[in-house]
């Protein structure tokens, strides 16, 4: 009588599976780098430092709630802002650009204006409080 042998399939040992998963988790946590948002790179003055500026050296840049820009009281497209600011800086090298945004204006419009001012090499930018 020949006995039939039943073939049992190989079993995967699961006792060390938790150890392997834990080691992989630690490996990826240690080797992964997380990029931080850089934001707007601006050098802010020290706290309490205020300077009196002559009114002729201030250029107001206003952003309304719909994202339109007024530069010195004149409407300007955001795309042409750096060109206009460069002209104004050429006329007056002590010019301070005061940027004031309406509370309902979009953050993207504000960032576009600041980028245009940086493209125009404006180093003196004042951020005015919105009402």
The value of Rg in angstroms is 31 Å
* Distance from first to last alpha carbon: 99 Å
pLDDT averaged residue by residue: 82
Number of helices: 3
CATH class of the domain at 56-127: Alpha Beta
Largest sheet: 5 strands, mixed
N-to-C series of helices and strands: HEEEHEHE
CATH overall fold name of the domain at 56-127: Nucleotidyltransferase, domain 5
What structural class do the secondary elements suggest? Answer: alpha/beta
CATH architecture of the domain at 56-127, by name, is 2-Layer Sandwich
| Residue share in β-strands | 15-25%
The number of strands is 5
- Which residue ranges are poorly predicted, with pLDDT under 50 across at least 5 consecutive positions? none
Order of strands, main sheet, comes to: 3-2-1-4-5
Bulk shape: elongated
What does this structure look like?
- The protein has 131 residues and is an alpha/beta fold.
- It has a domain at 56-127: Nucleotidyltransferase, domain 5.
- Helices cover 30% and strands 16% of the residues.
- The protein has 3 helices and 5 strands, in the order αβββαβαβ.
- The chain has helices at 17-31, 81-91, 107-119, and strands at 58-63, 69-71, 74-76, 96-101, 125-127.
- The protein has a 5-stranded mixed sheet, covered by helices on one side.
- The protein is elongated.
- The relative contact order is 0.14.
């Amino acid at each position: 009588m020949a006995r039939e042998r039943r073939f049992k399939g190989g079993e995967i040992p699961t006792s060390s599976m938790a150890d392997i998963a834990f080691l992989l988790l630690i490996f990826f946590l240690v080797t992964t780098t997380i990029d931080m948002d850089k934001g707007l790179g601006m050098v802010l003055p020290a706290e309490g430092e205020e300077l009196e500026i002559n009114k002729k050296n201030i250029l107001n840049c206003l952003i309304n709630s719909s994202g339109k820009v007024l530069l010195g009281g004149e409407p300007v497209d955001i795309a042409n802002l750096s060109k206009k600011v460069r002209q104004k800086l050429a006329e007056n090298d002590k010019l301070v650009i005061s940027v004031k945004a309406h509370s309902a204006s979009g953050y993207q419009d504000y960032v576009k204006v600041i980028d245009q001012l940086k493209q125009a090499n404006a180093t003196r930018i004042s951020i005015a409080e919105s009402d």
